[in-house]
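Recall the central idea of this unit: under ordinary conditions, the amino acid sequence of a chain determines the structure it adopts. In this exercise we apply that idea directly, starting from the sequence alone.
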Amino acid sequence: MRRRAFIAFAGACAAWPAWASGERYEHGLLWSVAGQDGATSHLFGTFQAPEDKLGRLPREVLRAFEGARRLVVETRPDAYASPRFREAATFRSGRTLEQTIGAADFERAAASLRELGLPREVVNQLKPWAILLNLGATGGAQASPPDARLAELAEARGLPIEPLEGLEEQIFTYDEWPMESQVALLRHSLAHPAEIPRRAERMLAAYLRGDLAGIARSDEELLARFPDLAPHQAVLTKRVLHDRSVVMAHRMQAGLRGGGSFVAIGALHLYGPRGVPALLEKAGYRMARIA
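Accordingly, the structure predicted from this sequence is:
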């Protein structure tokens, strides 16, 4: 999954190995995807973190990208995205964040977002999901470095950059999230602020190892400590991860025909039997791990 400051805009043939998809797709960030015609594309899992912690794109990724004829990404923000996302993140019925989560938690939220330069009155207009997306941000845009670098390379080569999702679809993912779950997860995050950077560091370390299961364990460890969050986290995981993986796996197949696509999506969309690689495999594509 991705996080970004909203103000800047915010996955088988009998002859294949007999392992379970859940075991196969626990490791690996870069995969080749071959259709029945043998044409090959590539699928790469990205991560949201400061560029100095991620480093440069791996050589295997750059080598695979050399043969690409198009870059496919989750979304492609434009000048309209930031104001529209900001509009969707704001209460429009006279309701306030303080009314929704209570005075004490509102004060914590206002303090947490102060370093982003957001005044209290602006914070008070935001929906809980908008606060959650911004907790732990350090100000300004936090574009995913792998995505940004790949987009730069594609633009330099004159390659088309094609999104898998539209802006309104991304907004719908969050805006139709049940308010009860928004509030429960926000209150927890505000009460345990040190968890956010700790989880981010653990997830980054797992990503750098190519350990998809390790990234996913972050949520498992959280729920083991706070089981009351389980139903709310389940709603979030379904909406943000599993439902979107199904849509992505379906939509990217048009670009996979004939090969030459380089698809870059959040790494957790690659994980397990409900991830994009497993879904593509079920649709008849041959997946091979590169790195």
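The mean pLDDT is 88.
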